[in-house]
What we know:
Chorismate lyase; 7-stranded antiparallel beta sheet; about 20% helix
Amino acid sequence: MHSGAYRTWLIDRGSLTQRLQAKSKHFNVRALRLNRTKPQIDEAKILKIPQQQSALLREVLLLDHEQPLVFAHSVLPDKSMRGAWLGLSRLGNKPLGAALFSDPQVTRTPLQYKKINRQHALYRQAIKHLEIPPLTLWARRSVFQLNSAFNRHVIMVTEVFLPNILEPDLVGMDK
């Protein structure tokens, strides 16, 4: 599976939440996991936090009806959960993207994307929500940053695109 079919989803720098809401009459978010844990080594490095330091981990599915379109994995370091972002730990079934893209003070790093397979922890989490998992999935990640007068707040968001997102007659159609 090459990136061609997923390319527009992978490189779009706008809000994935807004794009899905525009295409789907029945867009919703299902919270799967919210707990404190240590980030993966590569995540800690990008976020510039010690790997042994715990952070808030949030995982959700973005759906059309009950069809999973995207598995989203966010890492929110403790020092980022203050001030303007204090309420992000209480989003529940609300999309994180809506909060991030509504604040003009928030900037986003360039998108990184790659194909992941069963050796990758996020692939294993994402396929739990698929009847027939493909051999590989495409994922992208970026860091959102809010610069305040005193601190640099960062959140890493990784989005794993599931095969249903490519179905032209699925997203946006009444069932």
